[in-house]
Amino acid sequence: MSELQVYNTLTGRKEKFTPLVPGQIGMYVCGVTVYDHCHIGHARGAIIFDVIRRYLEYRGFAVKYIRNITDIDDKIIKRAQEEGCTAKEIAQKYTVDYYQDMERLGVRQATFEPKATEHIEEIIALIRRLEERGYAYRVEGGDVYFDIRKFPAYGRLSKRSLDSMQAGARVEVDSRKKDPLDFVLWKSAKEGEPAWESPWGAGRPGWHIECSAMSIKHLGETFDIHGGGEDLIFPHHENEIAQSEAATGKPFVRYWLHNGFVNINQEKMSKSLKNFFTIKEVLARYSSETLRLFLLSTHYRSPVNFTTAGLDEAARALERVYNTFNTAEYLIKAGVGGEQERGWESQEESGLLASTQCLSARGSQEPGQKDVAWQEISLAKEGSQEPLSGTQEPEAAGEQEPAGGSGRDHSQRRTQTVKQQDEAVLGSLRAAFEAAMDDDFNTAEAIGRLWEAVK
Questions:
Q1: Which end of the chain is more exposed for a tag (fewer CB within 10 A), N or C?
Q2: How far apart are CA 309 and CA 285, in angstroms?
Q3: Could you list the residue range(s) of the whole structural domain that residue 89 is in?
Q4: pTM for the whole thing?
């Protein structure tokens, strides 16, 4: 295989990927806030990091994948007030809804899927560490804030200077803060809202501290990959870095990966603009694999414009792929290629389509496990006794059958020649597929190699 390169948002360039522990990867991805149905933007992030996890496992890594659920948040509380129920009931309702969507999309469950409310003890402990190290301060009323001026590296991920920053999402102007950009670590209790006891009085955690506490608990103080949508770079991931490194004194994450937006009519899809489609709405018309193919046909860091025309084209392309697979399966079951050719499954090049398992919503695999789909294509094309180029090997002029022979030896030699040619072509395609995926998980290029294989 080629060398795995990933684009690191922190450094702004592609880098050779080297895990902290050889053969093992710790990976954390910000999950959803469970207050409503998931939309296609959520689907893109979930599918992209599902594919990245699958490909890393295909490469032989043991991946410990953590994807959290934010089950306490201002939006959840607001939704509960609108529906006349508790925040816990809203979170439970939409957590179930989220898992149903992920299952339909073929997104595998993470190794652990921690909830914020199950980590209050760890969150409080982390805030206390920040207090002890002089990075956190309590204000009148019981709120606790992070003092960003105490962390000189703030802005490193988002490439912003403190002087030019504006208060971002979920940051309100508060005269009690030392700096307008200081962000909340602990919110004091308000009437009718969920609350937990703490050294600062009853309250609940801020959004940013939740992810730091959960990732550190499950992956350690430094880990390999942190992923999420590009809208999380600032302020969420910037704040995660600040509070985590301030608390531990260690680098937080080695590689930061961020996926691009899903756009509608070239505008970012969002609930505030009311231009979004839920996963359920799209899957009512298209298959999950059609949606996966559509979303993966664009590089994960680039925006993708969501259109029905694009989905229709993905559906037609997917049909061509499965027509090829079905033909291959039929020929194999019919005995094309014989027992000798069936033995080809054990050879390295026959595993070509194993590398595309990571793109599919079908099944799962253990690290290094191979799939048989490329084997089916290999055997089907072999059974046709035609090289992939479509040309026939010319017979020598005047070649005669050996005395007393039946021509069987000549046929076997031709079959072996075809087999070697097919093996070389399919091996080349597999290598090209892997090279594309090794180039910052370039699924768009990798899918192009898949089309070459099914021609």
A1: C
A2: 13
A3: 5-305
A4: 0.83
